[in-house]
Specification:
Elements (H helix, E strand, L loop, with lengths): L7 E2 L2 E2 L3 E10 L2 E11 L4 E5 L6 H8 L7 E6 L2 E2 L4 H10 E4 L11 H12 L4 H14 L15 H13 L5 E5 L7 H16 L3 E5 L3 H7 L2 E6 L2 E6 L1 H6 L4 H10 L2
Parallel strand pairs: 5-10, 5-11, 8-9, 9-10
Antiparallel strand pairs: 1-2, 3-4, 3-6, 6-7, 11-12
Length: 256
């Protein structure tokens, strides 16, 4: 299992993620406006906001799935400056879990999990399989290793997707609305898996509207609207005493 001990420079932990004055455009549309955010090693951050607020764009810019147009992003001290070497380094540090499971349907669960460690990290099959089985066990789905994705429920497939990311032993996990495509009864098992990672000290940035998860697991909630970070606070403070009018309006719509 990976060591989540923070890297340090002169005794001070290096930020896991640092974003400074980040802008992102799609044509004339400004998706991110002057985004500034620092995530500490081991911190769990939940990003929330209305549809189209820039949440997914923000998280995708962190590992260069989306290329920022201005500003600075660094991951564990590596500047995402556009060079192939630095992009590859940042992607090796970050695991990404999407709304869709993105599993290869013609491969077994085990084969899905060993592919990247073998092709990208150069692991031999025995080592890659041992690592995959350890992480499948961690997400409580090892017994499904030799089945195909179509034989699993949506919640099970998402847990496999988490295990597949963990097989690369990232230092930071990025979740882009990982439960939004699931039936309600399947959401709990995925959130429990994420809670386990949080307890292990994994640095996590999660785009989600799962309020219970945010209250229980997050160290900080970041609220976005129209491409900007409007407000950020500890969960209890944000959900019980939001400061901005936009946050109050958003919470009134999702809290019942």
């Amino acid at each position: 299992m990976p060591d989540f001990t923070p890297a340090k420079t002169h005794g001070t932990p290096i930020p896991a993620v640092r974003m400074a004055a980040v802008y992102k455009y799609y044509g004339e549309f400004r998706a991110l406006t002057n985004v500034n955010m620092v995530v500490s090693p081991g911190e769990r951050v939940v990003v929330c906001g209305p549809s189209g607020s820039g949440k997914s764009t923000l998280i995708r810019c962190i590992n260069h799935i989306e290329k920022r147009d201005d500003g600075m992003i660094s991951v564990n001290g590596t500047d995402l400056n556009g060079t192939r070497a630095n992009i590859a380094k940042v992607r090796s540090l970050t695991g990404m879990v999407f709304q869709g499971f993105n599993l290869f349907p013609h491969m077994t669960i085990l084969e899905n999990c060993v592919l990247a460690p073998m092709s990208s990290l150069g692991l031999g099959r025995p080592e890659a399989e041992a690592r995959a089985m350890a992480y499948l066990e961690k997400v409580r789905i090892a017994e499904q290793a030799h089945k195909y994705p179509i034989q699993l429920s949506g919640g099970q497939q998402q847990r496999v997707a988490i295990a597949r990311s963990l097989c690369m032993e990232p230092e930071i996990m990025l979740f882009d609305e990982p439960t939004s495509a699931l039936d309600p009864e399947m959401v709990k098992e995925v959130l429990e898996t994420m809670e386990t990672l949080a307890k292990d000290g994994m640095t996590m940035i999660c785009v989600t509207h799962e309020i219970g998860f945010a209250r229980q697991v997050a160290d900080r909630v970041v609220f976005m609207d129209r491409g900007e970070i409007i407000e950020e606070a500890p969960p209890a403070e944000f959900f019980d005493r939001p400061q901005s009018a936009r946050a109050k309006e958003f919470l009134a719509q999702i809290l019942h």
